[in-house]
Structure formats: C-alpha cells, structure tokens
C-alpha cells in the first residue's frame, strides 16, 4: 500500500510580486487539483489554441491562501501521531522554492503555530491519554545540513558532526544534543484518578512543557544559516531536521521505538532565479544536490518493482532519512509554491517534483 501523502500549499501573492506587476497564474480548483497557467503563451495564438495553456496537477490535498495552519496540520500530519506513539516511523517535509512559506508551515509564528507545534502538542496529549502500565520517553534533536555538513542547532559550538550506523542498522548523528521532552519518571508518576473522575493531581507535564520545547526550537531555528538572496531576504540555506524519538515500554512487552522527522528543506530554486554567485552559488549547488538525491530516492521508491537498489548514500539528508523513507514509515510532503506569474518556472518544477513523490510505495 502507498503510505505517502503529498499536499500542495499556495501562498498569497507578496507585496513585492504585486509591486512588480505579477499576475496570479496558479490556483486551486478543488480539494485536490491545482492548475498552473503558462504566462508566456499568447491567448490569441490560433496555431497553439489546441494546446492547452493550463496544466492541472492532482494531489492528495491542496490548500490555497485561505487555509489556516490548523487546517493544514489536520489534513496532513495529525494522522501520523498515533503511529509514532505506537512505534512506527514518520517523516514530514516542507518542500519548495525560497520564500514560498516552508518555514511558516513548519514553525509558524507565535499567533499562528505551525505543524511542529501542533504535532508535539498532540503527541504529548496522546501519551498523557494512554493507560498507566506504559512508560514513555520522548527525546528531541534539532540539526541543520548545510553544504553537506551537519551542525547541531541546539549546540552549534559542537562543530561538524558525523553520521554513524548503529548495530541495528539505524543511522544516527554521533554526539548530537538530545533534549528530553518527557522522561519515563514523569509518566510512571502518573496521577491517580480523583473522586470526581478527573486526576487527583494536575495533569502530566507534557502539555505544560510544550511552550518551553517550542522556545528551544525557535532558538535553534535562529541558529540556521540564513543569507539574503534575490528571491528572499532571510533565505534558509540549509535543511533543518527536527527528530523526535518516542520510546515506549509496556509491562511484560519489550521496548518499541518510533521516530518522527519534521524537515524544513532549503529552497529548491534554480541558480538563474536567485542570481547567486560565489559562496551563494556553491551553497545552491549543495542544496540542489541533496534535493536531487532525495528526488532520486523518491523516484526509485515509486518504481519499487523495477528498482532493486535505492541509493541513500548520495547525500547526508537521504542517509539520515533511510529508515524513514523506505521502512515501516509514513511520509508526508507539503510542497509550496507562489501563485505569481514571475515564479512560473519554479512553480512548474515544484509541481512536477511533488507529483512524482505521490507514487512512493513503502513496505
């Protein structure tokens, strides 16, 4: 069965796009269909009249600029939480060109929290709601992959970290900082029920801990490598990877582990679009290399029958995600585009890439 889901989100037109006279050329037709119109084709050209100027793309779910953060979370990521709590792997990607709303979707703002905040809140709640004979531990790490080097965003002074494969074949980052979001002790000291049906003591610290956890993430995100480019003045030049590990120990039944990756990918635009030179150009090549490696893995996974070998070793990103792309995993990609006519080429390549991801088959 296919357990991958691909969503597409169209952000509103920006002030800069409106100022330069851009027209909207991408729009959502219904729950699943997005249409992109080529702004260069002349509507009055009789010879080309038979060739439609519009191309439609079908996704599992499509959002336009009216969709709230809550709506996006519920339609894409909410269903993953129960699986992670019970020991499965899951991965959520935000994909698309610079300045199209990836970081907004993943982290959001204080007043409009994104996928990460909603997911962690729901995860803590699910753990609080489970029966008392189960112990849980939740730990988190937050890293960036920049120019094929791994940096710990929670402790950048550690320098460049290496990937290692443990005895079980799981790829780990050696020496990364792990923060405990919920420890086994907290869960085993679960409050007994009071006479009124509610807990005798206040509820477990999981939900109360959420604001602190989100502050840690916001601090980590400020450590990301950002540089101004022509397309976005605070362009993230790295992939940011938040890994949440849930260990579950039930009395009389061994240990289960679920891993959730929430990933804000670096911008996927072509070099010509950003007019980058020198260092920015080099960064762009690394970004595109890892996105290409990810695309190749996605392509190979979507043609499982004919492809025996899937090359996860082409980039740090795909090595890190090996279990989460090909194993007992659920994968969600939220692709982002701008509706502006000036962004046509970027939007077209994003729609094509995301459409290909729709056919991943996991085992």
Automatic annotation (TrEMBL):
InterPro entries: Kinesin-like_fam, Kinesin_motor_CS, Kinesin_motor_dom, Kinesin_motor_dom_sf, P-loop_NTPase. Its main location: cytoplasm. GO terms for molecular function: ATP binding; microtubule binding; microtubule motor activity. Pfam families: Kinesin. Residues 3-360 form the Kinesin motor domain. ATP binds at residues 96-103. It is found in: Cytoplasm, Cytoskeleton. It comes from the Eukaryota. The keyword ATP-binding applies. One of its GO terms (cellular component) is microtubule. One of its GO terms (biological process) is microtubule-based movement. Keywords: ATP-binding, Cytoplasm, Cytoskeleton, Microtubule, Motor protein, Nucleotide-binding. PANTHER family: CENTROMERE PROTEIN E, KINESIN-LIKE PROTEIN KIF19. Belongs to the TRAFAC class myosin-kinesin ATPase superfamily. Kinesin family. This is Kinesin-like protein.
